[in-house]
Design a protein that fits this description.
disordered C terminus; Rossmann fold; OB fold (Dihydrolipoamide Acetyltransferase, E2P); 7-stranded parallel β-sheet; 26 helices
Length: about 675
Amino acid sequence: MKAASPFSFPVSPALTTKLAKLGLTRDADLVLHLPLRWEDETHLTPIRDLLPGQTAQVQAVVTDASVAYRPRRMLTVTVEDAGGVLGIRFLNFYPSHLKLFQPGESFRFNGEVRGGFLGLEMVHPRFAKADDATPLPAQLTPVYPTTAGLGQATLRRAVERALAAPISDTLPADWLAEFGLPELEASIRLLHQPPLDCPLAELESRSHPAWQRLAFDELLAQQLSLATARRQRKSRPTLPLPPRQQLTAAFTHALPFELTAAQAHAWQEISADLAQPHPMRRLLQGDVGSGKTVVAALACLQAIENGFQAAFMAPTEILAEQHYRKLAPLLSELGVRCAWISGSQRKAERTAAWQAIAAGEADLAFGTHALFQEAGSFVRLGLAVVDEQHRFGVGQRLALMQKGIEPHQLMMSATPIPRTLAMSFFADLDVSVIDELPPGRTPIVTKLVNAARRDDVLARVREACLAGGQTYWVCPLIEESEKLQLQTAQDTYAALVEQLSELRIGLVHGRLKPNEKLAVMAAFQAHEIDLLVATTVIEVGVDVPNAALMVIEHAERMGLAQLHQLRGRVGRGSRESVCVLLYQTPVSELARARLKVIFELTDGFEIARQDLLLRGPGELLGHRQSGLPMLRFADLERDVALLEAARNLAQRCLAHHPDITARHLERWIGSRQSLSTI
């Protein structure tokens, strides 16, 4: 039996497959598959009026077509109209093309005009059979995002057929008037088929009211989805973990410092959340070194003093073990039994640790993704702490959730999230912010140094280490790359050993065996190494207070968040701290902008905002891992007012208009369950 088409019109199985690659699985998807750009094919330009560099459309008759072999195989076609001759070249073509371009046949060609050896020409223009009786389009021609094997003409026909049906508006007319928005159907049809008098600049900049309507609807769908996920979570039961003031009070009393006001406030919010009968999903964000780990430890202790277990997960073994080594001695004095799970452990050690966890003999388990990848189980998992949450995919976090019966979850991020991102992609979470650094943190001086002054930097490193300090020297790659001729960690290590022979120098990178990597880091922390050459494996969480100098090779190649994270490895002690950013010239405009931001700013939240402006939300969120689709039409910086309005309207819809909510989510999300799955 032939499978029914998922569309309202006949579509072949082959075309259905190609459309699915673009996420187009129903009429509504095609209707919202909007053009990348538009081309003017509404008029013809006589050949005699063509100019080099111009993009134009001509109608002409073929006078000659042949295959040439010098300098490479190509199809050359000569065409003419009443006033001139034009050359057409195809470097890639099929044998059928030669049969198509028969002398006397009339075609329209659209492309860029070039000055050729024998006169004006077009290379690989778009073309279609046409004569004087063939009407010209009345609107601008859309050019759609597509995939291999799916031509514009086929895609346009599919979109046109989907547009044949009326498009209902999910929002009432009085709401449109309230927000100053045009009708949806008029907006969509204008964007697919703009009239000739439509300002092309407004279309291309997406400032046209039609684009604003689509951006608003997209943001509203996102806010509805995330708010729905939040409501559903709050309706699910879990066991409350109220504050007992036993282990938590003993821990804060044992700390050699007072919590900052920001830490105390964040802890109060988390403690209150844990006491609720629904699962906590809270994001704890704060700048590098703001003291998030201590707050997370308090959360673990509140779970443990209620008779539950806690899991503390980090993305790298170095960071996970550092959390373990820093917290386990303090917690063991309080009678808390800690376990350590890692991929590098011997099988017997790992088995013993899992047995202790499964038997309830371990209260707190530290580890990497091994905590959820393995078959081990928790007897009573009450809280999962996920450090650097953006590095874990949704599926990975869900796997950890399945280790317990709907445990509470605390996610941490040292990459501050700009307000607009928090309002949009994290709208289903509660957010706590630690916006001050503990007292005693020394300010970090950032210096931009041309790589040509490398000898001066070496002298500074020698002086700092011989005075009793320690230094990081960070390189972006492990081994030589032909594409990116960057200084490698291995080459740098060899050169520094020779140039700074009086210093004890170590090397750590991601391809070392885990136990070797941890041994090098332990030696650096014990000051058995003066200068540590490293890749960005030391980006997150490494804490060596005596290291007050960092040199970053090829800083122009790194992103703002990474540079800020790396810089945060120094400034953790009483020594004056300096971060030297070595850059190679020439520097691209984007890299220059990044270096300017990191040189001028130390506030992680403002750096994150600038990063959003430079890169967009996709890379900041790590969307390939996040499970959250990116916005297609809205821009979080440009459309802040629309986001605020969509956020407020989403609350009204959920409270009073469930029918509108359902229709809107069906149009924008369809079979996808949610824009956020946890």
